[in-house]
Amino acid sequence: MYTYYSPMLLGYMANKNQIDLHSAGSFDYLYIMRKQKPETEFRNRIIGYYLEGIINIIKQIENNLIPNTVEIVATSYFFNDRTMNKLGFLSKEPSLFYRINLLINFIDLTWMYSLSKGRFSIPKLWNAKKASISGAALIENKAFILELHKKLNKGS
Hints:
By secondary structure, the chain is of the alpha+beta class. The chain has 7 helices and 6 strands, in the order E-E-E-H-H-E-H-E-H-H-E-H-H. A hairpin with a 2-residue loop joins strand 1 (2-6) and strand 2 (9-12).
């Protein structure tokens, strides 16, 4: 059911038509991120893993393991519109199903979000956005994604 593209980014029921990206679960956070300090280091490491996963998807598209017509989607409460646009993602309103899923996972999302902030913080689930991009458009934005990943890794 899950395909890991990096330690913290996975695709749920990924197929040739769509990859629905999700952040890793609680166990992954506890196991993989246990040595990261809360706040900036923690947040940058997670973003680095997300970008690593996107880079792995790009490589699979380039190697014809995934068709470039695939739609890559993700729903989250922490997307930044400017960065999403720079990465080539289009912003949409998430479906009711995804909003309910976020609410069901409220406790998990709260403690993981709090670690990224370095203090107790409640995520703004009502600000959730759905991002989507085609495989071809993702490849077009490869240089920017690689550069952003490189900058994040320099800081860690």
